[in-house]
Amino acid sequence: MPREFSDQELVRRAKAQRLSENGIDPFGEKFVRTDNSETIKNKAGEFTKEELEEKALDVKTAGRIMFIRIMGKASFFSIQDQQGQIQAFISKESVGEETYDLFKTADLGDIVGIEGTIMRTRTGEVTVKVKTYTHIVKALKPLPEKFHGLQDVEERYRRRYVDLIMNESSRHVALTRPRIIREIQRFLDDRGFVEVETSMLNSVLGGATAKPFVTHHNTLNRDFYLRIATELPLKRLLVGGIERVYEIGRLFRNEGMSTRHNPEFTTIEAYQAYGDLEDMFELNESLFRHLALKITGDTKLPWGDVVIDVGAPFRRVAMVDLVKEKVGVDFREVHTFEEAKKIAEKHEVYVEKHWTGVGHILNAFFEEFCEQDLIQPTFVYGHPIEISPLAKKSVDPRYTERFELFVKANELANAFTELNDPLDQYERFTAQLKARELGDEEASEMDEDFIEALEYGMPPAGGIGIGIDRLIMLLTNKTSIREVILFPTMRDNK
Question: Contact at 8 Å (CB) between 445 and 205?
Answer without folding.
Answer: yes
